[in-house]
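User: hey, got a sec? need Bromo domain-containing protein folded
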Amino acid sequence: MSVPVMNDITSHKHASLFSHPVKPKDAEGYYDIIRRPQDLKSIRTAITNGSRAVAATTQSTADTPSANSPGGAPATPTQMPSTSTHITLPISEELLPPRGIVNSAQLEKELMRMFANAVMFNSGEDGVVSDAVEMAKDVEASVANWRTAERTSVYEATSNANAAGGGGGGGGGGGTPADGDDEVGGKRRKF
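Assistant: Yep! Here you go:
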């Protein structure tokens, strides 16, 4: 899901400031001010947890009988609709941020929380604050590019599946067109 963007983020010149959780001995009073701390290591762990949940749900969906599968046999990934771009996961504490990240919006939110925490805790406009602001701008641009690419690839996959005949549209009964009718785009048109 997000390996490329996380690699870009963790290779940023200021990423070392955010690589691990803040230790109480390094920043006295941090946990009194910051109620939901966040760091890159925790974000990676949350992505891993979310990916496991998605994989498990996808596998269980493939193993359950489907109305589309003949005789109620388990649906195989090739029998599952190829245009599906959404997976519904059960709500659980393990999948809610910050423990689990399953989509790009949650990832972006947790990254921005990390930078906001740095700005809230540290005083002044220089040092950690300026580094956090600089990295936040770079990360925001990187995530925006990634989300655009993600949406484009989903759109192209859906368009290709629809063009290949997988996109449902109904053809008016599945027979041949009557005399004088021409079936165009799933609709009948009189001449």
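Quick note: The domain at 3-154 is CATH 1.20.920.10 (Histone Acetyltransferase; Chain A). Let me know if you need anything else on Bromo domain-containing protein.
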